[in-house]
Records
---
Amino acid sequence: MAELYFDEYRIEDEFTKFVRTEKDSGYFTGDIILKSAGNYIFIQNVVAEEDYVASCTQFLIEDVEPPEEYVKAVAVVIRTFVYHLAVNNIFFLPDSLPYWVYKGVGNLSSKVKKAVEETHGEVLLYLNSPIYPLITYCTGGFTVFYEEIFGDSIEYSVSVDDSYSSSCAYYNWEIKVPVNRIQHQLNLGRIDSIEVKNYTIHMIPDTILIFGDKTYQLRGVNLFQSLYPLLPSPLFQMEVVADTIIFNGKGKGHLIGLSLWGSKAMAVSGKNYKEILEHYFPVAILSKMKS
């Protein structure tokens, strides 16, 4: 077989393309671009934003028959994220993000297609600009401020009641982690005891002191990120018992923005997607933007 050399090869046609890569549906709209770099070939998909929104919405919707208003709310949040990047001149996204994954359009349900169509162009705005929305699986009764997790503040990030998450399995949780696992994960020496020096306004450990062969200091969020998904959220209390660290916490995810479990429960209770979005993003305004 003859060798094929190219820098870039673009597949353009009006039909859906089939490209089998790891962990995707295999079917993609838009153009497929193959880029050669050394011994590797990178695959890019130039896709319309609504197809991207539909694919990522499908990834987040775990239920076979999800409430329609819940699906619409998720679609608007993902579209807002895409538009937020676009107005900041970012048009290139990885297929895998912390909150969702782009897998093409081969597995889209009719309910997801309908939700994306019926909310076409709708995004959440603050001062006429798309916000940076975040998604969490569920909370322990309230969402938290952006600055509690990431340090810097966002004006439109607020904390709201999320009692709708109360039936979530992660509303309250207890996790036991061997001390040696944390030593290995964080590259620490001996651990004798742990003290939380201070907390954020919603009782997220802000500064943690670890005493042992020497004193280590880290943020609770860093510990959560290092141990995720073993540690479901950054909202926890902790104590050392023998060779185990016991974590008692609340929620799953970063606890910011749209609560998937809570928004689904709101939809089941009869709330529409506009009411759901207004609840979790009370400072933002739902509006239509041109592509």
Note: The longest helix spans residues 68-87.
---
Amino acid sequence: MASKAYHHGELRPALVSAALDLLERDGAEALTLRGLARAVGVSAMAPYHHFANRADLLVAVAAEGFRRLQSQKIQALHASGGDPVAALVAGTASYVEFVADHPHLYRLMKGPAFADRAPHPELRAAAAAPAASLLGLMETLLAGRLATITPARGAQILWSLSHGIGMLVVDGQIDRALAPALARDGARALIMGWIGE
């Protein structure tokens, strides 16, 4: 196969996009820089201009996963009409849907290989965005209320709910079709308990 020509700045996003497709189809074990080069149609050495090694590629893929998670979540928040309760409920359901729809990607994003994100600034920044938006919503919800929980603890509990339901879907313990409703009902029940309504 002839190698494709990419303009400066186009190859890295193309490699990450192709890696996401391969990951979703075949799992993380299938990702290699040489296999990725074949998938994109470039020389075997071309990916090495953008990624020092496979681990570097996986960092970029995980970071893109967090950006996509945040983008999907922001869409759900905008559709909620600005009410913090509705936004938190919608965000929780959106997170569960992302996990259920992208199991291999989510396992990479949240797996032990990247438990310590400190050495990876791109990944650290991308992973911080969903957490920061969740905390911000909790702060908005609880501002001026006599709540039974702090914003940080509430955010941690809602994330745990989302992660747990999502992984139960991935592991075949909960039907995918039921998961968003479970997430919405669970989040709403927790939130109403915290704010006493």
Note: Residues 1-51 form a domain with the Arc Repressor Mutant, subunit A fold (CATH 1.10.10.60).
